[in-house]
Write a structure and sequence with these properties.
This protein has about 180 residues and is mainly alpha-helical. It has two domains: about 40 residues; about 140 residues, no CATH class. It is about 45% helix and about 10% strand. The chain contains six helices and five strands, in the order H-E-E-H-E-H-H-H-E-E-H. It has a three-stranded antiparallel sheet with strand order 3-5-4. A hairpin with a 2-residue loop joins strand 1 and strand 2. The longest helix is centred in the first third of the chain and has 32 residues. It is elongated, with a radius of gyration of 23 Å.
Amino acid sequence: MKQYILPALRLTVICIVVFCVVYPTIIWAIAKAAPGQGKGETIQKNGKVIGYEKLGQSFTEDRYFNSRPSAVAYNAAGSAGSNKGPSNPDYLKEVQARIDTFLVHNPDVKTSQIPVELVTASGSGLDPHLSPKGAKIQIARIAKIRNVSSEKLTQLVDQYTEKPFMGPEVVHILKLNIALDEL
């Protein structure tokens, strides 16, 4: 019996030291060396934090570019998708409600022109990006409300379009809306 208990106790102590002390210390050190020191990369305006680089935010006023919908109300603590499949009646009602809302605020757009990302939530529910098409389809509404030319807004969207090494081009909506307010 002694031959089994002592090795098990030694292994338990080793695991506690490695997984409760060594590993967390290494991860903490890596986080402190990263941008934002492990607290996330913030976006600031006038010295005040107004958002995060990797987290989406809700924009509901017609004078701003709308973000991608969130399945978790943009709550980073509860990052998740909705778990509802594409044939779920509740999910279909939710998407239809988003389409209807979008069309009310963008009357010049046809249903078939709405990019999917404007009516469906991302897998995390926190995506801060839209495709350039998702941003550009909102230009007519914003130009009319802000009395700014569509061409100027198109240039602004193009200026804030990020071209990653791999993957599709994206527009960071918070950064775009900050630049929009600075016009």
